[in-house]
From TrEMBL:
Superkingdom of origin: Bacteria
Record lineage: Bacteria, Pseudomonadati, Pseudomonadota, Gammaproteobacteria, Alteromonadales
UniProt KW keywords: Hydrolase, Lipid degradation, Lipid metabolism
UniProt organism field: Bowmanella denitrificans
Protein name: Patatin-like phospholipase family protein
UniProt motif (GXSXG) ranges: 45-49
Domain PNPLA: 9-222
Active site residues of this protein: S47, D209
Alphabetical list of Pfam families matching this protein: Patatin
């Protein structure tokens, strides 16, 4: 087994914010020759991070090419490629959801949500060649790719993974790892932000965004054999504790706060737990460490150094008219304090700005990344 197979990349969720991750990944290309394979053969992703992760897995034999493909998609993004955004289809979809509750029986209802993300399914089918994952596993460029979703049927966090033969499924309290052949439905399930996008049925269960119920985000890479995990998140700096809202928070502000909590807070708790375990192991002798059946795991986390909400506000006008109208109904304006806008702003200008900021942050920490990845 390659020595590099102990390195993992973990990409968290965050809707359109995930463009930032591509910028950080681009910075890492500065450390590698053009024909170099993935520097982290274990890749794990959740929500929009799962889509980025899977794209990298498809191009594991050439890291530079994988990053370029991702960059091209994100900088050319338009909202209508992710969800129906023209005024008539948008409000027809919303009206249809309301009418079906009056007339349809439970079993005949379609999935209900704020937005219709069928365009995203078509985009993923067009741009991702899942057969490449098997080829990269066979050639040793990839050890495993994991996509996490949340089961509405069992309330468990399910990590669907595709990996080398020696990797097996796992089960812990409220979380499972299931070995399978990944496809578009796993990505759609992982990225189904609750209430915003419809749940996805896989086998006999309904799934939503992988960040829900994900009490231990570090679990998938560790179960897949990682000893060093590079984490690229999309959490903006926390506001000064002295900062106070100038008015009673409206529904849009609360919705944004809930999304921030879903996508970020469990990772902080898991990292704290990891650091405590590492410290405890450092106090034990070799025999005692072996008895615990635990191993130290190193992590390096990179998150945006800037206010994403302020960045998103600059591109509010780029949204289609139908979405801007819906946003206004929800109380979201360019100067609002809701994070919801930054999760849904799949427009090339905003995505390019996020990638540029990610590249900047990545370059500022490039020496730290180089040392961590032992390049």
């Amino acid at each position: 087994m390659s020595q590099r197979h102990r390195f993992a990349l973990l990409l968290t969720g965050g809707g359109a914010r995930a463009a930032y991750q591509v910028g950080v990944l681009k910075a890492i290309t500065r450390l590698l020759p053009r024909n170099h394979s993935l520097p982290f053969p274990i890749i794990c992703g959740t929500s929009a991070g799962a889509i980025n992760a899977t794209a990298l897995a498809c191009f594991a034999s050439c890291y530079h090419l994988g990053v370029r493909k991702l960059e091209w998609v994100w900088k050319n993004f338009h909202t209508q490629q992710v969800y129906a955004s023209d005024t008539l289809p948008l409000f027809s979809y919303l009206l249809g959801n309301q009418l079906q509750h009056l007339s349809a029986k439970d079993k005949s209802r379609r999935p209900s949500s704020l937005l219709n993300n069928q365009p995203l399914r078509r985009l993923l089918k067009h741009t991702l060649d899942f057969s490449r994952i098997d080829r990269n596993l066979l050639t040793g460029h990839l050890k495993a790719i994991s996509v996490t979703a949340s089961s509405f049927s069992t309330n468990d966090s399910i990590s669907f993974f595709q990996g080398v033969p020696e990797l097996n499924s796992w089960q812990r309290s409220k979380r499972l790892g299931i070995k399978t052949q990944l496809n578009v439905e796993h990505l759609m399930a992982s990225a189904a932000i609750p209430l915003v996008f419809p749940p996805v049925k896989i086998n006999d269960q309904y799934f939503g965004d992988g960040s829900i119920h994900q009490l231990s985000p570090l679990s998938p890479p560790i179960h897949l054999g990682a000893e060093k995990i590079l984490i690229v998140g999309v959490e903006q700096p926390r506001p000064d504790r002295r900062h106070q809202l100038q008015h009673y928070p409206n529904s849009a502000t609360i919705a944004g706060h809930l999304l921030d909590t879903i996508f970020a807070d469990t990772l902080h708790s898991d990292l704290e737990r990891l650091y405590r375990i590492n410290h405890t192991l450092s106090l034990l002798n070799d025999k005692q460490r072996q008895a615990t059946q635990l191993k130290p795991v190193e992590c390096l986390a990179i998150n945006p150094s800037f206010n994403i909400n302020e960045q998103a506000a600059d591109y509010y006008a780029n949204l289609p008219l139908g979405i801007r109208t819906l946003m206004r109904f929800m109380g979201i304006k360019p100067d609002s304090q809701s994070s919801l806008l930054s999760y849904l702003l799949f427009e090339g200008g905003f995505c390019q700005a996020m990638m540029d900021k990610g590249l900047e942050d990545g370059l500022q920490r490039l020496d730290e990344i180089r040392a961590f990845l032992e390049i």
